[in-house]
Amino acid sequence: MLQSLSHHFKCGSSFGLFLSHSLSSVSEEDLTHFRSFLPKSAVLTDAEDLIPFNEDWLKKYHGNSRVVLRPKTTEHVSKILKYCNERRLPVVPQGGNTCLVGGSVPVKDEIILSLNSMNSIRSFDPHAGVLTCDAGCVLENLEVFLAEKDHIMPIDLGAKGSCHIGGNVAANAGGLRLLRYGSLHGSLLGLEVVLADGTVLNEMSTLRKDNTGYDLKQLFIGSEGTLGVITGVSILTPPKSNAMNVVFLSCDSYDQVLRTLEMAKKRLGEVMSAFEFLDDDALGSVLGHMSNLVCPVEERRSFYVVIETSGSNKDHDEEKLMAFLEEVMGDGIIADGVLAQSETQFKDIWALRESISESLNKKGAVYKYDVSLPQSRMYDLVEDIRKRVGSQSLITCGYGHIGDGNLHLNVVFPSFEKKHEEILEPFVYEWVSKEHGSVSAEHGIGYMKPKVLHHSKTWESIRVMKTIKDALDPNGILNPWKVLPEKIQ
Ligand code: FAD
Ligand code: MLT
Ligand code: ZN
After folding, report:
1. In principle, which of 49, 197, 434, 437 could form an S-S bond with 44, CB 3.0–4.6 Å?
2. Where would I find the FAD-binding PCMH-type domain in this sequence (predicted)?
């Protein structure tokens, strides 16, 4: 007998009407069905095994799923979704589970559909630089594969050792190289997606130009598992640069950071591949966490900048960098600076930047705000929050992809508590909204931000999003309670 414990939840529709989807819970009969066509190892039900799948990376969101399915093929995914759609069983697609907005874990007892057994590289065309692969390939493994072919992935982020390319696409992740290689909306050439009813949408184009009607793949980039399950990816990979340099600079004020950015755009424009910043609290957190790393400059200052160049001629790039450094030093724009002299120093400087997130996570409960703002106003938000929080937080810091206008404001408390959240929210979102910024620059909406989506999208746009959701997933089984707000005006 099918157990029909139903969750009734409301989802908004146009003009304030609310439709109710009725969702079921997994029964023993459902598990027997999944076991009938999936390998034994692809159906996890042991409570111990489920723990890491039910909890997010920040340990802020906890689901209560009783089963993880790990399909090996697109056909498996199709069969699972067809069945779940008929049975009204909700499903959370999960990649590397590095999501920072609670999108990758269940809210209640949704089935977790993990892509980590779909991890084959399908093809690589060295002339076109086009890679096709399964969605569950770990980003770093793709990097390693491409390095041998003298190519790189157009996306790079601190979570590369765990995150999947499918998760990157579903989240429309930005990362450290967006400044140079643009967003996934530009470098992604094709996708294979399984829709809620099990239909396999083969959009695996390898063409750079293809103007044949609606560009459907774009809909799934940043859809966060709410419109379909991505099973295959076709992506344009840039050639590896012959010459890469990284510099670590220190500044005494945020204004100096902005002037450094302005100067770097002028002097290093065509070779610059990253421009990142961090404040001294962020640096202090990493140095406290990674005993093998040291501050690259002699004295600690208020702010630091990491600039990477990737070009084709080492001498030419170094000449440009040295001229830039002399100018910013000479004009007193920076306090000090170091150009990495070895592969180890290059990696250590990047490790400082990339490990901020992990170091904060080790300190306590991290409230993360990933926002787009005019660069000139970015740090005012961090300062306003510092004043507001006072001595209540363990650490309040700012860092991020300043070259892309993306700030990461992080506030660490000893534990996640409503009273802490209330100091920060909705204050941060209202602040961002007044500046016409975005409440999510790159991490997405997930479970954390549906209620504040309206700060960055009009209700007309949200209603169109809901129309698309209803068309592709009429029973609301895909990642329920994520992205779209419950109440829509
Ligand atoms: P998950 O976390 O598993 O899932 C993310 C979302 O996509 C969820 O909503 C999930 O349901 C959905 N999803 C996952 N796979 C699929 C699929 N195959 N089909 C459909 N939906 C799917 N983000 C940035 O943008 N820039 C950064 O610089 C950055 N750095 C990070 C550094 C660290 C240390 C960490 C922990 C996270 C970072 N992130 C960053 C956040 C995160 O978005 C990325 O790590 C990554 O894109 C998530 O990939 P994932 O495979 O872990 O996806
Ligand atoms: C980063 O840029 O380091 C990531 O987006 C993770 C974070 O915001 O902490
Ligand atoms: Zn980031």
Report:
1. 49
2. 61-240
